[in-house]
Amino acid sequence: MQREIQAASLQHGFRPADPAISLMEQDSPFIKHATSGIQVEIPRVAEAPEPEAMIQLLTGWERLRN
Questions:
Q1: DSSP class of residue 19?
Q2: CA 32 to chain centre
Q3: Are 31 and 24 in contact (CB under 8 A)?
Q4: How far apart (Å, rounded) are the C-alpha atoms in residues 22 and 4?
Q5: At a CB cut-off of 8 Å and minimum separation 6, what does 12 contact?
């Protein structure tokens, strides 16, 4: 996704995939609504799945789509 689109999506509460786009700008919804519980830093709660598990998930998803 283009940087401009990611930056615009931020205004609707989406986290940009590009880590260079800051969530800490003054007009960021993550700053505006921090008192409501929105978190900029999200702790990791699970380990990434093994590559074989991802392959199986994607294979199953492709089967369902077709």
A1: T
A2: 18
A3: yes
A4: 13
A5: 29
What's the token pair of residue 35? 């008192």
pLDDT tens digits, 6-26: 888 888 888 888 888 888 887
| Residue in this structure with the two tokens 């077709």, named with its chain if needed | 66
Could you tell me the end-to-end alpha-carbon distance of the chain, in angstroms, rounded to an integer?
25
CA angle 40, 44, 49 (to 5 degrees): 135
Tokens read off for 45: 């709660």
Residue at token pair 């799945």 = 49
Of 30, 26, 34, residue with least CA distance to 14: 30
